[in-house]
Specification:
Structural class: alpha/beta
Number of strands: 6
Helix content: 25-40%
Largest sheet: 5 strands, mixed, barrel
Shape: elongated
Length: 139
């Protein structure tokens, strides 16, 4: 009887370990691309969903995600319907209403805008790992 109980307990423990390992593997996605990578090969990314990390800031009514290494930037389009999503709403409040710059990972559809000054934009679906940045010196 003890051998059967031990075998069942071992089986249950192994199944839980396997399930936990599978769940952990699913949550570990590939690292986000940089703005420089996406802009460097923009034609490859147009019309696809991207996960990009950069510094978000708002100037006027335009929010951009930029990378100082290549001096590249992409406009961020945050649809009002997505405002109900907590991550997007919190990000919008941080960057637009509070006027804070933030390091963030953005997931969304990369698209061409047809605008010569800002040729690309991302329709934001979700935002994660948002970290407010200190104000720039002298401003």
């Amino acid at each position: 009887m003890n051998a059967i109980a031990f075998a069942r307990a071992t089986g249950v423990a192994l199944m839980l370990l396997l399930a936990a390992g599978t769940a952990a593997a699913r949550s570990d996605g590939p690292p986000p691309d940089t703005i420089c990578t996406v802009l460097g090969t923009a034609a490859r990314y147009v019309g696809t969903t991207v996960t990009v990390r950069g510094v978000a800031a708002t100037e006027g009514k335009i929010t951009t995600l930029s990378d100082a290494q290549c001096k590249g930037a992409v406009n961020l389009s945050m649809d009002d319907d997505l405002g109900r999503k907590r991550d997007v709403a919190s990000f919008r409040r941080t960057v637009t209403e509070k006027g804070v710059r933030a390091d963030a990972t953005v997931f969304g559809r990369f698209k061409a805008t047809g605008d010569a000054h800002a040729p690309y934009a991302i329709d934001v679906y979700s935002v994660r790992d948002v970290n407010e940045l200190p104000a720039a010196e002298g401003g």
